[in-house]
């Protein structure tokens, strides 16, 4: 299912424009300042894990990237273009970003295949036959081809979440945002969803994933960004983040995840 192979580990840093750059992102709900000036750059093929305590602002940050949450201040560059400009068509920006939330939001009244192909057909105007061919390939790649014509309620939670993930990549987005995609699953279903995320990461998909799965972040992410009360406290290569965190707040946070 990979679109682009990830460059070899020793390849030079990509010279292409970053996929995403955030500068000074600020968001408050009334007096509650949730994002306090976030700067973040994501390069092509990078997998960034966004970690932090509950309420630290991870979901809000992902929602701002997808323009689902307005910002009070700052700039969002997607592929080098300022998409935080109020004159920008938010739907067109969203069409370039795949998003999967904690609760798999498949449309219950559409077949699994229609769910997977909907955005391609309606937003990207891909002919139905082509969209369905691609959708079936994607469903086959996650072992769900036999459920293509079923409604989502025939699937387990893990199967639904995997279908939601392939739906998000069916349009070949520039960036995939995953917001705690395993948090609502029974523990025995978590592994199958993480395996799919791992294969996308290995295939070169650019991903930002908010997660509480520290072992997974350590294994799959290139970088880990630690958000604490709306600020990025640490932003480091995954190995360095877990083995030699620089900040006391990071160490405190990681101490809660024994065995990582
Ligand atoms: N629409 C809203 N109105 C008011 N407060 C909000 C709104 N959305 C988020 N918040 C607040 O913003 C803070 C950050 O929430 P957010 O969901 O971004 O945190 P999080 O790090 O993703 O947490 P979790 O790990 O529990 O999902 C929380 O205090 C939350 O109550």
TrEMBL record:
Lineage summary: Bacteria, Bacillati, Actinomycetota, Actinomycetes, Micrococcales
Please classify the protein's predominant subcellular localization into one broad category.
Answer: membrane
Topological type in the membrane: Peripheral membrane protein
- Put simply, this protein is called ABC-type polar amino acid transport system ATPase subunit
Q: Where in the cell is it found?
A: Cell membrane
ABC transporter domain boundaries: 20-254
Which family does the UniProt entry place this protein in? Belongs to the ABC transporter superfamily.
Cited SUPFAM superfamilies: P-loop containing nucleoside triphosphate hydrolases
Tell me the domain of life.
Answer: Bacteria
Q: Which PANTHER family match?
A: AMINO ACID IMPORT ATP-BINDING PROTEIN, GLUTAMATE_ASPARTATE IMPORT ATP-BINDING PROTEIN GLTL
**Organism, scientific name:** Agromyces ramosus
Could you tell me the keywords of this UniProt record?
Answer: Amino-acid transport, ATP-binding, Cell membrane, Membrane, Nucleotide-binding, Transport
- What Pfam families does this protein's entry cite? ABC_tran
| SMART domains, A to Z | AAA
The record's InterPro entries line, in alphabetical order, gives: AAA+_ATPase, ABC_ATPase_HisP-typ, ABC_transporter-like_ATP-bd, ABC_transporter-like_CS, MetN_ABC_transporter-like, P-loop_NTPase
């Amino acid at each position: 299912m990979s679109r682009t192979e990830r460059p070899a580990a020793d390849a030079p840093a990509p010279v292409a424009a970053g996929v995403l750059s955030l500068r000074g992102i600020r968001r408050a709900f009334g007096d509650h300042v949730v994002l306090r000036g976030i700067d973040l750059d994501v390069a092509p093929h990078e997998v960034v894990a966004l970690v932090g305590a509950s309420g630290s602002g991870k979901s809000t940050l992902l929602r701002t990237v997808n323009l689902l949450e307005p910002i009070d201040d700052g700039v969002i560059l997607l592929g080098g273009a300022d998409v935080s400009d109020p004159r920008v068509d938010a739907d067109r920006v969203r069409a370039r970003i795949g998003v999967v939330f904690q609760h798999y939001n498949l449309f219950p009244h559409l077949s699994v295949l229609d769910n997977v192909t909907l955005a391609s057909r309606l937003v990207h105007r891909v002919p139905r036959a082509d969209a369905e061919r691609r959708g079936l390939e994607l469903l086959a790649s996650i072992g769900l081809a036999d459920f293509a014509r079923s409604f989502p309620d025939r699937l387990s939670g893990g199967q639904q979440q995997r279908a939601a993930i392939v739906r998000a990549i069916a349009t070949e987005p520039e960036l995939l945002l995953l917001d705690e995609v395993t948090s609502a699953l029974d523990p025995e279903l978590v592994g199958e969803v993480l395996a799919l995320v791992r294969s996308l990461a290995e295939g070169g998909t650019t991903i930002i994933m908010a997660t509480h799965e520290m072992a997974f972040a350590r294994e799959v992410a290139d970088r880990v960004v630690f958000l604490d009360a709306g600020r990025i406290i640490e932003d480091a290569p995954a190995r360095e983040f877990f083995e030699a965190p620089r900040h006391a707040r990071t160490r405190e946070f990681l101490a809660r995840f024994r065995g990582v």
